[in-house]
Amino acid sequence: MTGKVLLVDDEAHITRNLEKVIPWEMLGLTVGGTAKNGMEALELMEQHSFDLLLCDIRMPVMDGLELVRHIRDKAMPCDIIMLSGYQDFAYTRTAIQFGVNDYVLKPIPYDELTGVIARVMSSQRNKQKQLQEEKQKLGRMIDLASEKILYDIIMDYTDVTADNWLLTGDEQQLKQQQFVLIVLDLDVSSESTKDWRDWSDKERKLWNFAVCNVLRERLQQNGLHHAVIQIRDGEWCVLIETDKEAAFDLSAIKGWAEMLMSAIKNHVKLSLFAGIFREFAAVADLSQAYKLVQQGMQLTPEHDSIAVYPSEQQKSSQADQAFWDTAEKMIGAVKRGDSIGVDNELQGITTLLQRMNEPSLNRVKPLLHFFVLHLMREMKEMGIFSREQEDMLWRRLDRRFGVKDLLSVIRQVTNAVSEKSMDKKKQSEISMSEAKAFLDRNLYRDLSVEETATHVGLSTSYFSLLFKQTFGETFIEYVTRQRMERAKAMLGETAKSIAQIAKEVGYAERRYFTKVFMKYTGENPTDYRSRRQGGAPEHATLNE
């Protein structure tokens, strides 16, 4: 990218010589303008941006030092090299005070000036590169934080009201955004996924990780601002941010889904199905939109590899909806370890089926089959089954059997939960205690819900549910709150710099730490420290 230089000197022959003699193209610059005095130069700089200014000191109307003062007062981003026939140190000192990058004496040694320009521009480009990298790094950190929050919103673990302090500052923008929602799912009952069932948990985790990476890479390559959220083993929710003024272009969105499915097939060698929510979803609607798409994919025994939900058929089938609502209540009771609730909902499903005539039963049978799959996947996330139990259930599901057999499998699954519910509850308490101790020990570094879940031997989705049930807040809310409380204590009681405190509570970027701190407390760290310490010692903030 070529930069622009402004040449300012009241002697026209000097600006002409500078234009002709200096190898501007080699330096990555073009002469964007010339001026005879500081006033002309300032008018040009107010109309156009320049990367470099070469300026004489002594000029009529407005001299070079006065011009530089105006440039710095107006915070114009421009490097400056002063040219002067005067060797008086007072000029040099004033130029340094105004932030001039270098000072060259006349008569101008063009070779030396070329070297000075090259050094100044190299420094400028390095700074720009560093700023861009920091901006990208900070932006990615914000994206990751938003992704974690979006998972909690989709799973209905947190809200998007004004009271949620995590949704202020940068994340506040989430509330203003609209998303395309695509659910990508592995058909775990198909013949092509039998090998996947045989993989160990470690192999499946690596596979899930690979799929997430492929999805993110492909979306990034296509310039789509996105979030990829793994919901459970073999299921992802892809959110693509769109412009507020954009129209819902279904053909383009199907093209995105096809692109993602092809990338997974090529790189990970597995075929997925895609369900698209039929309109843009605001953040407050994400949980419901996800449930509708997931429900549609589960309740449709045969569908295209890419389908749109809710479909007209899905909207009109009240019986299917009643069945699904009852089934979801039962899964919720299973997750809570509520054996009485499980029995009640199972009895409700049985009663519902008993009231149906034969044609209705034939229609419900595939839905019941899909529900058993749904239930098994949820139970696997909770670690309910041994490998032998899981293999046995898969073998039963691979055979063709009737409604009574399907109900028998459901009872077998729910009985396994009931038998383990007490032990599971005790184990859950132990796991959450271990998780809390792990988090308290590791607040100083980047922590993910995936790492913490792995540490206590749970799947990410079940860990997130259990964490919210135990602590009354989501993982990210808990971790951020603990970090902020620790930072408040350190700011009030120590003389450590803000940059150092940021690192000690897990934030590599001081600026990002400051934003989060301001969201949490309503004050920036410097003001908070000053108020708590009654005026902090000067050395405490030198490295902020």
From TrEMBL:
It comes from Paenibacillus endophyticus. GO terms for biological process: phosphorelay signal transduction system. Residues 524-544 are annotated as: Disordered. One of its GO terms (molecular function) is DNA-binding transcription factor activity. Residues 433-531 form the HTH araC/xylS-type domain. This is Two-component system response regulator YesN. Residues 121-148 form a coiled coil. It comes from the Bacteria. Keywords: Coiled coil, DNA-binding, Phosphoprotein, Transcription, Transcription regulation. SMART domains: HTH_ARAC (SM00342), REC (SM00448). Residues 4-121 form the Response regulatory domain. The modification 4-aspartylphosphate is found at residue 56. Pfam families: HTH_18 (PF12833), Response_reg (PF00072). InterPro entries: CheY-like_superfamily, Homeodomain-like_sf, HTH_AraC, Sig_transdc_resp-reg_receiver, Tscrpt_reg_AraC-type_HTH. SUPFAM superfamilies: CheY-like (SSF52172), Homeodomain-like (SSF46689).
